[in-house]
Amino acid sequence: MRRAEPPRTGDPERDRDADPESVARAIALRLLTDAPRSRAQIAEAMRRREVPDDVADRVLDRFTEVGLVDDAEYAAMLVRTRHQERHQSRRAIAVELRRKGVADEVAHEALEQIDGEDEASAARVLVRRKLASTRGLDPQVRARRTYAALGRRGYSPSLVATILREELAAESLDDDETGLPLPD
User: Fold this and answer.
1) Which DSSP string corresponds to the chain?
2) Residues 99 and 82 in one domain
């Protein structure tokens, strides 16, 4: 006579007989353990694992209700870190938020943390870094590399031009005061 097998235990994502709600919860919790995520990112992961949409919505609604999923807080955190640590522009951060599925109105509200002065200050930090790393190169090469580096971070060419002109002028004054030859 055969004994009944013990019930399956372990990860509901790997259990074919697991109820879809358990699978959805496991997916959401695993993703949120790694890093904060937007609702759309979690929903996409559930879709890839073939969790029915109504079950995914129910689980995501519950996670939102208890505060585990909060797109407004996620967007605000992403804006702060991308701007302060990586010195990205509002435009580059807006693109990233859209790609991560954050609603435009939520993204717009989060991006209000960055004003024009903050953006110019971050751009200035990047221009100074780029100029320091290209010191000794032809001025046109330095300018081109600076435009490219800041363009990849979403800064407008007019802002980059203004700051680059100011920083090159300050650099020339510094060189002149030290007695070093000025670049042509």
Assistant:
1) -PPPPPPP-S-TTT-TTS-HHHHHHHHHHHHHHHS---HHHHHHHHHHTT--HHHHHHHHHHHHHTTS--HHHHHHHHHHHHHHHH---HHHHHHHHHHTT--HHHHHHHHTT--HHHHHHHHHHHHHHHHHHTTTS-HHHHHHHHHHHHHHTT--HHHHHHHHHHHHHHHHHHHHHHTPPPP-
2) yes
